[in-house]
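User: Structure with flavin-adenine dinucleotide, tokens only please.
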Amino acid sequence: MINAITNPETLVETATTSVLSIEAQQLPTLILGGGFTGLFTALHLSHQHYKTPTILIDRSSRFIFKPLLYQFLSGEMNTKYICPRYDTLLHKSGIEFIQDTIQSIDLQQRQVQLASGLYYNYGNLVLSLGSVAAYFDVEGAEEYTLPFRTNEDAVALAKQLRNCLQRATQTPKPQQQALLTVAIVGAGCTGIELAATLADLLPDWYAALGSNVADIRVVVIQREKEILKGDSDSLQQAAQTALHERKVSVEVLLETEAIAVRRNTVVMKRNNQIEQLSAATIVWATGSAIDPLVSTLSIPEAHRDKQGRLKLTNALQLLDFPEVFGGGDCTVMEQQPATAQVAYQQGAAIAHNLQALAEGHSLLPVEIGLRGNLMKLGLDESVSDLFDRYQVKGHLHFP
Ligand SMILES: Cc1cc2nc3c(=O)[nH]c(=O)nc-3n(C[C@H](O)[C@H](O)[C@H](O)COP(=O)(O)OP(=O)(O)OC[C@H]3O[C@@H](n4cnc5c(N)ncnc54)[C@H](O)[C@@H]3O)c2cc1C
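Assistant:
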């Protein structure tokens, strides 16, 4: 939802950008990154019959609906719903899709260079490149853990887990336990939802091999003294209960820091003691960092936050480049969490403002409505905190 402009400062910005739009009329609008911000910008532009030629560029051929990656891993939902192809999503939309890796962005020259050698000059640009995993300099973390951020990560994790279970059936007892242990570093939403899913899924997979499911361990390692830090007490408690009630109970190690990762081992600091956990599968589910491409942009530190994310005007333009809009995880706006529900609403607002710019109208500040959290806590079970006021718990049904 967007509100009318009331801030005089924004009116000044708007006057500048209107001139820019006239100068830049013949050049395309480029959308860099087709995640929640980029794809929703494109879809809204199409819906608005935006006349400027528009190109969406992403390295992947598929949009990834990340909040449903657990259902993709478990097979509860079909690929076409969780990672639909851009060419299907943008069919007849009037938006051109290019699958390529963006290599550099020159904000001064208004030029984008792609890995294939193609380059584009733009009139307007949308920066929506998301984020990457943050490893906080933990030794061995990048090398020996699996990420869980894309459909490819989910496929790789499922393959690794099935392989470990198979190997466990042919391995004598003392060595078997590591193959049957999954360690998940981080007890934010991703870590907790993944742990709950695996604590239902792995027993099913292992039982199908005729083996004893009680040997499976799912262990979550959390540096803080609570899970889901920052979420409501009631959501934290509902999640704790759900973790306990899975087919195998999830073990949560609180106030425990993963200080190094080696092949099949997490080295942890707990109560000032160093401990080791043997696990053949270790998932890194903590922290996001700025996309390396965004950190190379010629934007001063003062116009970034501590993590390097880009600050924006309230109409979602870069502070020094009013022809460039930004949204999602690579940008920062006060009080807005880095979530899909913020990113797609920013996409709608960017589309609105691009259209306004093209038609010489005033830009509008974005207004984001937060609708609470919905968490998937195991196969067929979910809990939500709607509008941060109402809690709902129950079974999820998919078509
Ligand atoms: C497992 C998981 C579960 C989540 N669950 C929830 C949830 O339940 N609710 C919620 O609100 N949020 C959730 N989130 C967070 C949410 O997915 C992100 O906040 C959201 O995706 C951010 O949108 P974005 O458009 O900024 O970036 P993204 O959706 O990450 O999209 C960025 C796009 O840019 C492309 N890209 C990046 N660099 C390049 C390059 N150099 N060249 C070409 N293409 C490039 C990528 O391929 C990607 O398609 C979850 C995240 C994860 C990882």
